[in-house]
Structures are given as C-alpha cells and as structure tokens.
C-alpha cells in the first residue's frame, strides 16, 4: 500500500488545534502508535487509511496533515485576552473556527455593500461609554424601532425572530447556529460562549449560539446589540446575568430595561403573586413567559428592586442551570432547508443570491459562504427564506 510522508511537527500542530488527547486518539483502529509518532524527530511514512483516521479523530482536513511547514498560528483579537469568571481561558477550536467562518462572511458582505454604495452603520459606537443603563436601553429601543410592550403577547421563538428581524432591518447581520459545519461532533458549548459580536463600521455581525433557550438567545442578542451601540467587540459567556465587570453589568441592566419598559407594572405583577402566596420559582417562570427573558434574569432584576431575596436568586439559578443541562442532553432535528434558513441572516442570503445571479459571485463561492453543499440545498434555502422568486 502506498505511503504518505507526514511530519511530526504538523501532527503536533494538529493536536494543539483540535485540543484532542493523544492517548484517546491511540484507541482508534490503527492509531495505537499515535503518541509515539508525535515525538519522532524525522518524517513518518503513513498509509492513506491511517492518515484519514487521524484527520477524522482530530477533525482536521486531510490536506492540513500533509503540510511540510506548520501553519502560522494567528489568534483572533476577539479571543486573545478572553476571560471567564476573571480567569484567562483558551478558546476551543469550535469557537475559533466559528469566528473565522463569521469573519469570512463579514469580510465578503462588507466588500459587497461598499461596492453597492452603502456607508457606515450609524448605530455602531453611537452611545458614549458614560451613558447609563437606562440611556442605553432607550437608544436600543430607538435604534431598532421597538414600541413599548414590544415583547408582550408573543411566543418565545416569535420574540427572538421579531427582534432578529428588527436588528437586520437596522443593518446588523445576525447569524445563528448550534455547531460548526454539519458535524454533530462539533456542537457549540453554551458554557463556553452564548454569543459574540464582530464590530465593523459597515456590517456589524452578531452570532448567537443556538444551543441555548429562546429566552437566553433573546438576552444574548440584546446584549450584543448593546455592545454594537457602545462600539466594542465581545465574546459573551456571562451565565450569571449579573456581569463580572462594570460595562457588562450596565449592558445586562440595559437589556432588562429594553424589555421591561414599565417598572411599575413589573413591580405590581411580582407583588401580586407574592400576595397570592405563589412560589418564587413559579413567579419567575410566569414573568419569563410574560416578558420573554429567562426566569433567572428577571429574578435578578426583582432582587435589584427589592422584590426577591438572595436565597430566591440562588434557588432560581440552580433550577435554571438544571434546565440548561437538560437542553444539552436533548437532540435536534427537523427540515434541513428550514434549519439552514434559520442559521443565516436573510439580508446576507439575499446578497449572495444577487451576486450569483449577476455573475459577480461564482456558485461554488456562494455555496461556501452559505455553508451549503449542493445546488439542491441552495435552492431549498432560497425557498425557505422566501427568496426564490
């Protein structure tokens, strides 16, 4: 059987990129010697079958494994100084790859929009850093044309879709996904990040992790919109909702005020249920259904208003964390065309379609930017988006 020359330094680079445990890889068929290969000093001769198995185990393209020179590692500025709970953390390959995919889409969209004569998005950096949470909330509502009570009388998924549409109308590109590419093995972890924003003066892009609940996704989207208005990039992972820094706490409070735009009504609603001897977790759940944010976020807001105790917050937080774990165990499915459509910003898909139709963008490049593999999937995506006419 023909063999392929592979350099140990390239294998070590691939292991670092994937975050895989070499000992675990060694349990795969034909890869028992994998840890030893990593420590070799000279080139290795491996079969195509073994190299393919390595690529599968590390989730690294075959072509990357046969490079003679280790690719230069360039960490995205967005994650270079990233922390969780005030501790420096290294981003997973899934997060790094998703940021790369989104930057590629953003770069193409920016060039396309400039070529079509679009200028700067006036929302970006429009709110000064010294603005209060209330002022930021008011600017979010104004910038997205959100009427008072906009979140009421909607289902949780309708609220998110409504806000996403308003953000897109305001020139913000909003992408959503639950995994990198089409591999179920590359599921995005909400404990690592819930959303991120890639700031740009023409086409700011927000990505939301679909493995969250709709209430959490609504909060994340509003949070990142707050960052756009303040003019700052961010990877959002604040599971506590209270925020670990002054700016994060201010944005989180602005998110609450964007949704709960009548404080007196909120106070009266919470107090009535206390008077009716309703359990705090049920009060929180009722408010979550009423306003569309998570039970935890609204309990923390009630705590700030003196309506809930520290123990109430701890109880609702514990119940919320249990629900996140239950969500992670649940599977997903459904119509693939509708799924693809839900992942992509409609304005972005329209630009791709128009570029393909004009001949300024090849079908292969268009499919690559959209993350679909065939013309059949492309046609299905356009139909699901209502762009097939």
From TrEMBL:
<protein>
    <submittedName>
        <fullName>ImmA/IrrE family metallo-endopeptidase</fullName>
    </submittedName>
</protein>
<dbReference type="InterPro" id="IPR052345">
    <property type="entry name" value="Rad_response_metalloprotease"/>
</dbReference>
<dbReference type="Pfam" id="PF06114">
    <property type="entry name" value="Peptidase_M78"/>
</dbReference>
<dbReference type="InterPro" id="IPR010359">
    <property type="entry name" value="IrrE_HExxH"/>
</dbReference>
<feature type="domain" description="IrrE N-terminal-like">
    <location>
        <begin position="199"/>
        <end position="298"/>
    </location>
</feature>
């Amino acid at each position: 059987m023909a063999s392929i020359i592979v350099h140990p330094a390239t294998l070590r680079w691939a292991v670092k990129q994937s975050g895989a445990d070499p000992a675990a890889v060694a349990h795969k068929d034909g890869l028992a010697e994998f840890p030893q290969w990593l420590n070799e000093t000279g080139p290795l001769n491996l079969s195509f079958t073994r190299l393919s198995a390595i690529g599968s185990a590390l989730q690294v393209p075959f072509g990357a494994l046969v490079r003679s020179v280790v690719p230069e590692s360039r960490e995205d500025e967005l994650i270079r100084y990233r922390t969780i709970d005030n501790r420096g953390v290294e981003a997973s390959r899934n997060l790094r790859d998703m940021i790369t995919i989104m930057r590629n889409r953003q770069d193409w969209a920016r060039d396309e929009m400039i070529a079509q004569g679009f200028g700067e998005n006036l929302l970006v950096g429009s709110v000064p850093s010294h603005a209060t949470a209330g002022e930021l909330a008011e600017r979010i509502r104004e910038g997205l044309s959100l009427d008072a009570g906009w979140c009421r009388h909607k289902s949780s998924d309708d609220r998110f879709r409504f806000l996403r549409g308003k953000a897109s109308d305001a020139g913000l590109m909003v992408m959503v996904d639950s995994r990198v590419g089409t591999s179920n093995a590359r599921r995005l972890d909400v404990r690592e990040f819930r959303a991120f924003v890639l700031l740009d003066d023409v086409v700011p892009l927000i990505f939301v992790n679909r493995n969250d609940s709709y209430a959490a996704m609504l909060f994340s989207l509003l949070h990142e919109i707050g960052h756009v208005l303040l003019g700052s990039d961010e990877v959002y992972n604040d599971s506590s909702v209270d925020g670990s820094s002054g700016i994060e706490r201010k944005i989180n409070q602005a998110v609450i005020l964007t949704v709960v735009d009548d404080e007196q009504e909120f106070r009266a609603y919470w107090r009535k249920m206390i008077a009716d001897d309703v359990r705090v977790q049920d009060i929180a759940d009722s408010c979550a259904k009423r306003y569309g944010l998570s039970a935890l976020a609204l309990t923390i807001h009630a705590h700030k208003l003196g309506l809930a105790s520290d123990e109430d917050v701890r109880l609702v937080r514990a119940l919320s964390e249990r629900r996140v774990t239950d969500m992670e165990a649940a599977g997903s499915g459904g119509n693939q065309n509708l799924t693809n459509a839900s992942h992509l910003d409609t304005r972005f898909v329209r630009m791709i379609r128009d570029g393909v139709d004009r001949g300024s963008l090849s079908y292969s490049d268009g499919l690559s930017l959209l993350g679909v593999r065939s013309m059949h999937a492309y046609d299905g995506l356009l139909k699901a988006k209502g762009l097939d006419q």
